[in-house]
Design a protein that fits this description.
alpha+beta, Arc Repressor Mutant, subunit A, Chorismate lyase, 2 domains, 6-stranded antiparallel sheet, Bact_HTH_transcr_reg, transcription regulation, UTRA, HTH gntR-type domain-containing protein
Length: 279
């Protein structure tokens, strides 16, 4: 993520501001059929415009009052949406200067299991993570078969939005006693970090090897509901087992990917070192 000092003072580098705000209004109205609160609809509309490059890294965004006027929503709703985006790291707010799109707004460089490409096989789609749940569980599964020394587990669920086209679900399991400090992290921080990096930097447990397995499967009703899919949806389930020194298992990740038209670029061995150095 870029530092504040790295964010320029230029205005919108894409379409004219009036045209951009008209497009924002259109997107907010398109989302009006959803049951989500108004500020979440505005947040989604802004994110989609950033994802598509209508607001580029370094661009200064309009004032809160202009967002409210253009979207047809209240000033409080606009403030709530922009504040949430800033907390998630999708925007940077500079006191006395305005709100900017950071150069690292997309998390594709850190979320290595969510690198989706387009038809041209070149551009990586922008992705954004949202931590939706963190809990301690003793329930067994593939994770308990891997982490055999753990008596309880921390499960972190994150919803990964891919180019505002579809959502994936990540369930990350770690030893609940060994890594209990993860429970003290603010949820807002879990939006942005790569959890394996946290294990390396805070607990001196780097990821040195991963094993990936993928299969087509029907999604459990709970997974389908979280991804707002039909209850009988089929998709891909990617299992990632992580190991540290002496091939000691340290984490199990279950990723659910719904049907989509994009290609998934699988992580290679060269990417593993990034688990210990990515920010």
């Amino acid at each position: 993520m870029a530092n504040i000092e790295q964010i320029g003072e230029r205005q919108n580098s894409g379409r004219p501001r009036g045209e951009a705000m008209a497009e924002l209004r259109r997107r907010v109205e398109e989302l009006a059929y959803q049951d989500d609160p108004r500020h979440l609809r505005l947040k989604a509309a802004i994110l989609s415009m950033i994802a598509e490059g209508l607001w580029a890294p370094g661009d200064k965004l309009p004032a809160e009052t202009e967002f409210a006027r253009a979207s047809g929503l209240s000033l409080g709703t606009a403030q709530k949406a922009l504040g949430a985006l800033a907390r998630d790291g999708a925007l940077i707010r500079r006191h006395g200067h305005g709100t900017f799109v950071p150069s690292g707004a997309s998390q594709a460089d850190r979320l290595l299991h969510f690198r989706f490409v387009g038809d041209d096989d070149s551009a990586i789609a922008p992705v954004y993570a949202e931590a939706i749940e963190r809990r301690v569980t003793t329930r067994g599964g593939a994770w308990s078969a891997l982490l055999v020394e753990a008596s309880r587990f921390i499960r972190i669920r994150r919803r990964i939005t891919v180019a505002e086209e579809f959502d994936c679900l990540s369930e990350f399991y770690i030893d609940g006693d060994r890594f209990a400090g993860v429970l003290d992290m603010p949820m807002s921080e879990l939006h942005r970090v790569m959890i394996r990096t946290v294990l390396a930097e805070r607990f001196s447990v780097p990821t040195l090897f991963v094993d990936q397995r993928v299969q087509a499967t029907g999604f459990a009703p709970e997974v389908a509901k979280l991804l707002k899919l039909d209850s009988e949806t089929y998709g891909l389930a990617l299992e990632v087992r992580s190991y540290t020194r002496d091939r000691q298992p340290i984490a199990f990740q279950h990723i659910f990917i719904p049907p989509n038209v994009r290609k998934l670029q699988l992580m290679s061995g060269n990417d593993v070192s990034r688990f210990s150095c990515a920010r």
